[in-house]
Amino acid sequence: MSPADVREAITRVHHEEWARVVATLTKRFGDLDIAEEAAAEAFATAVERWPAGGVPPNPGAWLTTTAHRKAIDRIRRENKREDKQKEARMLHDERAEPPDLGAIDDARLRLVFTCCHPALAAQTRVALTLRMVGGLTVPEIARAFLVQETAMAQRITRAKAKIKAARIPYRVPSAEDLPARVSGVLAVLYLVFNEGYLATGPGTDPVRHDLTAEAIRLTRLVRTLLPGDGEVAGLLALMLLSEARRAARVSASGELVPLGEQDRGAWDTALIAEGHQLVRERLAAGVAPGRYQILAAINAVHTSARDVRDTDWSQVLALYDQLVRLDPSPIVALNRAIAVAELDGAEVALAAVDRLDGTLAGYHAYHATRADLLRRLGRSEQSRAAYDRAIELAGNTAETAYLARRRDQLH
User: Fold this and answer.
1) Distance between CA 281 and CA 273 in Å, rounded?
2) At 247, phi and psi to the nearest 5?
3) Bridge partners (DSSP) listed for residue 256
4) Does the keyword Transcription regulation apply (predicted)?
5) Considering only CA atoms, which of 371, 390, 367, 391 is closest in space to residue 381?
6) Which of 36, 77, 113, 313 is 20 to 30 Å apart from 358, CA to CA?
7) What is the Cα gyration radius of the chain?
């Protein structure tokens, strides 16, 4: 293999095996810190050795065995003053066969639930999941969320310490706790995806493909582990149908392109087909859909239309009506109003949007929606003020450019 082929293989193996190795070591030693450090050392060893010796026939087994030995070495160093009996036991464990790779899926699932435990703050869950399950480095995670490396490292270190001190169990929740805990895992993955889909910081790329791709990969992993969960399938479908439009979402000049103006020929047909198939499977299941399944169905309606004029807005509105019953949040109401505008006109939609003023006054999309509706009604002065407020609140550079252009086109 050429050096480039080896580098590509290491990157691929890192994506495929990082979570497996960390999960296996966490199960074996009961310590996230030891598992993370040993896994990182094993991959560093691979980077050193594989270019000269070649990629092993079973990279996952090689990395697991190497990481297992690194962990044993660390434990031995930390416990070198302890009794000979413990050292003999560790030496026996070191000579033992590496952990059974067939049982890793359960270990990985436990790792996901541990990183997304509700005892941890939401942003901490995101960071820990990206590090332990996704294998992103601390600098990569820090850049994604626009914080200093040292601050992100401290956040992850504190999270691992809290898991250890609070004795948060490394296990899949009981059957009665599982639905609530799965929803917490999906919320973390959705946060990761949304940060990539429309990055919040002005100092970063407006669309972060690295984050959307990682969120999709992790959601695929969870779906492999929980194939019968409708909301997992729904979230994956939602991500795929959103990601399918990525190439058409930002213009060559760096301006956000709204759904109605996108070049639909640039959409990824393979991702759309996969997303539609997941939506159809959930409909065929005959089970009442959850939030992510309904959002995926809305996206399926949009991506089924060859032209924005072919959009079945009555179906979109019916799905939003269904979603409002599950999630009566002001953001859902705002998105529903956009569908109302297409069916009942801007005046009716504006009345619905204005009722949300008290709860969404600090949300840029609220002001952007009002600005567009006021523009349609010919109320240019009010529209301009709403655009100004939306621009002031928006952090995404592509979105700001789009809003500024629309404002400047007002008469």
Assistant:
1) 12
2) -65, -20
3) 250
4) yes
5) 371
6) 313
7) 24
Residue 32: CATH number of its domain: 1.10.1740
Q: How far is CA 74 from the centre of its chain?
A: 33
Instruction: List the structure tokens of 47.
Output: 């980077």
Q: Which residues contact residue 191 at a Cβ distance below 8 angstroms, ignoring those fewer than 6 apart?
A: 122, 126
333 CB-contact burial (10 Å; exposed 0-12 / middle 13-18 / buried 19+): buried
Contact at 8 Å (CB) between 113 and 181?
yes
More confident residue, 395 or 38: 38
Note whether residue 220 is domain-resident. Answer: no
pTM here is 0.78
Render the burial of 173-200: b for 16+ CB within 10 Å, e for the rest: beeeeeeebbebbbebbbbbbbbbbbbe
Q: Can you tell me the distance from the alpha carbon of 55 to that of 51, in angstroms, rounded to the nearest whole number?
A: 8
Residues 151, 255: Cα–Cα separation, whole Å: 32
Residue 401 lies in a domain: yes
Give the chain's domain count. 2
Question: Mind listing the pLDDT tens digit for each residue in 67-108?
Answer: 999 999 888 887 765 554 444 444 444 443 444 444 444 677
Residue 317: domain span: 312-411
Residue 273 corresponds to which tokens in the numbers above? 């087909």
Alpha helices, DSSP H, located in 79-177: 84-95, 104-115, 122-132, 138-144, 149-165
